[in-house]
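USER:
I wish I could look at a protein chain and see how it folds. I am handing you a single protein, as its sequence and its fold in token form. As I understand it, each token names a local backbone shape. I hope you can help me see how the letters and the tokens relate. The protein I mean follows directly.
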Amino acid sequence: MSAALAPPLVVASLVLCVAGVLKLRAPAAAAAALHASPSLVRALAVGEVALGAACAVHPTRSLAVALALVYGLFAGVAVVLMRRRVACGCFGDNGFPLRRRRQAPPTIPLRRRRQAPPTIPVTAGHSIASATLGTLVLAAAVAGPRGLGWVLGQPAAQAAALSIGIAGALYATVLVYTVVPRAWGAWIRT
């Protein structure tokens, strides 16, 4: 059973790392949502990266339980932010995928050049995704967590298939947090 839960544990760990790295890059949205300073958000982001990396590389039961608790906390915070109808800043200011910012030509007035992209409030999807990841991680903690070392220790074809599956699931999960709410918001407004 723990072998089946290794990929979801690694995906949850890496999602936390991605979110932490993007909050380190741009903490303003998360700071606004949490009514906290950007330096506090950056400190929390460092903790996210550290916990995610530790759980991905060498998970222990206690680290997996801590990761499950973090996702449980995220699910609760998502519910609160959803009720307040604000964006969470979970993946930095602009979310994912990363894009290089274009500078407007100097002929455009300054007030038009610095407009931020519209923010999409937290949806139930944030809470559901976090609760699901937390539940899977908790199940992995109970069954005996296995990380990337176990995945890469499998026969070559199996390790390659698992790695590709983990990468795809990681990308899809990040999209659930970042792109799906924007798409849902656009669909609802029309």
